[in-house]
Design a protein that fits this description.
The protein is of the alpha+beta class and about 425 residues long. It is built from 14 helices and 15 strands. Strands 2, 3, 8, 9, 10, 11, 13, 14 and 15 form a nine-stranded mixed beta sheet that branches. The protein has a four-stranded mixed beta sheet with strand order 5-6-4-12. A two-stranded antiparallel ribbon has the order 1-7. A hairpin with a 3-residue loop joins β2 and β3. α2 packs antiparallel against α3 and α12 packs across α14.
């Protein structure tokens, strides 16, 4: 029964999102219906009703034609090639930017000074009053983008928090608060996730490259989050260590869109309005919001209880380029629970069981990984990184481990 309820909810979310983006067509339909209803058995009523009906029908057919014509001549296919880092340069505002490519996982924009700022400097954040709205230019492509991205998966249009600002190191003057906004999951799919698709015109001309059109500024650089018009939902990932120093890892199911059937951080997902706090405030510290989200995801995906969490530290930041350069925060969580404690049967919510295929622990020598990275060893070549993570680790897991190792180096200096 629950499976049918979830399926109906998913289909309702999908239909409601499509209707909300194409309200002019819906309005035309209403006009046609009203025109038909007003045809009464009187000469005046017949004339006025027929006129309203013809006008409404004409508007409806025009809007329907425009709706289908906008993107009907384009084909949407998944991009297999890596992000074009050679042609899209890092944004000049980021200090010491680095494109980090991990084969078969993805590409991330990382910055050592940004990681240090995130870990050591409290950053003010402010929630916008207005909800995020898809740009008009992307609304028409929604009916083509969603099916291609989801492949028939069960998805829900829940609320998420996006980011309009960059967590850069502070300058001589106090930076303005980083703006947050509330969006919907489908907004992110129809904007950021559109960058995973190649959009080609059937004539072979007039192609639309989302990575160039949506992510690149006039000077050929990757747009900052402050310049972006995408939903830019905030990804959050934390790696938890037990009291006896074992790393907690989760495995994602095939229903996950980003990294299906790969190993994921202990808690990983998207920031949502629940993370604004028990009494949501429009203003606050960004790291506090991110920390709450990390611990919520950790509890939901592993069954770890709040009383088993000692603390969580936000230690890193990246932008996942293939996914529309969306923001990703990374953290480390220390647990009071031991490996033995986590062997108890932990109950997950029905929704989480759709996407998480259990949690287990691995041994990893984080200090040794820190020394290897400090000596210039590539992450996937580091001898101390477990082979299972090298072969099956998702991009968020690998980036979280890298951030933790580099943070360990800076912490002991």
């Amino acid at each position: 029964m629950r499976q049918w309820v979830r399926r109906l909810r998913s289909r309702y979310d999908y239909a409601a999102f499509q209707v909300s983006n194409e309200w002019p067509v819906l309005l035309s339909v209403v006009g046609v219906v009203l025109g038909a209803v007003t045809i009464l058995p009187s000469s005046v009523g017949i004339v006025l009703g027929a006129l309203a009906f013809v006008l409404g029908l004409g508007a409806f057919l025009r809007d329907l034609h425009e709706l289908r014509r906008r993107w009907a001549d384009y084909e949407f296919t998944a991009i297999a090639a890596p992000f074009p880092t050679a042609t899209i340069k890092p944004p000049g505002a980021y200090p010491e930017p680095l494109y980090l490519y991990l084969p078969n996982r993805g590409t991330a924009l990382v910055s050592g000074p940004v990681d240090q700022a995130v870990a050591s400097q409290s950053m003010d954040a402010r929630l916008d009053e207005e909800l995020y709205r898809l740009p008009k230019s992307l609304k028409g492509s929604a009916r083509y983008v969603l099916p291609k991205i989801n492949y028939g998966r069960l998805v829900f249009n829940g609320k998420i928090i996006g980011m309009r600002g960059d967590p850069l190191p502070p300058g001589p003057s106090s930076p303005p608060p980083i703006r947050l906004h509330i969006a919907r999951f489908f907004d992110a799919q129809c904007s950021n996730e559109m960058c995973t698709l190649e959009v080609t015109h059937r004539s072979g001309e007039d192609d639309f490259d989302p990575r160039t059109e949506l992510l690149t500024s006039a000077n050929g650089q990757l747009r900052t989050l402050a310049e972006s018009v995408l939903a830019d939902c905030i990804g959050i990932s934390t790696i938890a260590f037990t009291a006896d120093n074992a790393l907690v890892v989760t495995r994602q199911t095939s229903r996950n869109i980003a990294s299906p059937q790969l190993l994921a951080p202990s808690g990983s997902g998207s920031l949502d309005p629940r993370d604004l706090g028990p009494a949501p405030q429009r203003e606050g510290v960004l790291q506090d919001v991110v920390r709450r989200g990390m611990e919520r995801e950790l509890q939901e995906e592993t069954g770890i209880r709040q009383d088993e969490i000692r603390y969580t530290e936000v230690i890193g930041f990246a932008r996942w380029l293939e996914r529309g350069a969306k923001p990703e925060f990374f953290g480390v969580t220390e647990l009071s629970a031991t490996t033995h404690d986590l062997k108890e049967q932990r109950r997950l919510t029905s929704d989480e069981r759709l996407y998480t295929d259990g949690a287990f622990t691995l041994r990893i020598d984080l200090p040794e990984l820190s020394r290897e990275l400090a000596d210039g060893t590539d992450l996937l070549s580091a001898p101390s990184l477990p082979q299972k993570i090298k072969e099956q680790g998702s991009l968020p897991l690998l980036l979280a481990l890298r951030a933790a190792a580099l943070h360990y180096v800076s912490a002991i200096r």
